[in-house]
Amino acid sequence: MLLDKCRYEEMLPHEIVSRRKRFPAAFIGLGGLEWHGEHLAVGNDALKAEKLCELAAARSGGFAFPTLWYGEPRTDHMLEASVDSDGNVKKKMGFKPRKWRGTFAKKNSEEQVSFYVDLVYHVLLQMNQLEMKAVCLLCGHYPLHAWASSAVERFHAQCKDTRAFAGIEFHYPPKSLKVGGDHAAQWETSYLWYLRPDCVDMSVFLGREKEPLLGVHGKDPRAFSSVEQGKEACTLIVEGMIKKAKQLIRSVERERG
Q1: Residue 99's closest CA among 87, 113, 111?
Q2: pLDDT digits over 107-156, tens only?
Q3: Using alpha carbons only, what angle is made at residue 179 by residues 175 and 182, rounded to the nearest 5 degrees?
Q4: pLDDT digit string (tens) for 183-211?
Q5: HEC profile of 32-84
Q6: Structural domains for the chain
Q7: Does the structure show a pLDDT above 80 at 57?
Q8: Model confidence, pTM
């Protein structure tokens, strides 16, 4: 039995038209490639956002658009770069010792941020062209939120028939102790463990239960993470994303009168 498609890039034109008439909402994950401990895939941020967007699209009748993996600033707020002061993450990854900022010598931090804001703004313009009334951006890498929000503000000043929102996973559901955020710790491990168990391997810590964790910020996932916790939180996140998309669509329809 075939299930309804929800990934825009996989759909035929008649499938898109039919689905868009029912719920013209786009869900787009924003992420990147970064160290997330020894137990999580380096694509954690984008992987969790991508799967949550697919779940929201499938359950709402909207569309999951391709995840934005590239383009984020690589000089700041990255474990392999500015946060890895002692170089231990680079050693674990087998990277050559060097100043990573030098890799982007032709683009300083401000230029990289400006590029990313332009990129997200362009994505939003494309959603407007594709006649989406609502766009929910899910920022899997938390620093992306401020930059994506800047693009949304700029977009709203130009387009009135599409409304957008940029949020981190805990921005979508009502404030709850059951949904939180960290870096490769209790929450992110639980999310990915539920959403993409093939990208989590807690066995790397067997016999190392007391060792300090490298590049993990938050409560120790060895003690506090679980699939059940991830499922409960992700259910609330998806429900919140759908609710936000409905609100955005209503705001467009009110403006049109």
Answers
A1: 87
A2: 678 888 999 999 999 999 999 999 999 999 999 999 999 999 999 999 99
A3: 115
A4: 999 999 999 999 999 999 999 999 998 89
A5: CCCCCCCCECCCHHHHHHHHHHHHHHHHHCCEECCCECCCCCCCCCCCCCCCC
A6: 8-174+238-256 (3.40.50.10310)
A7: yes
A8: 0.93
**Per-residue confidence (pLDDT) for residue 238, from 0 to 100:** 97
For 197-255, write each residue's pLDDT tens digit.
Answer: 999 999 999 999 889 999 999 999 999 999 999 999 999 999 999 999 999 999 999 98
Distance between CA atoms of residues 73 and 116, nearest Å: 7
Render the burial of 148-166: b for 16+ CB within 10 Å, e for the rest: bbbbbeebeeebeebbbbb
- State yes or no: pLDDT of 2 exceeds 50: no
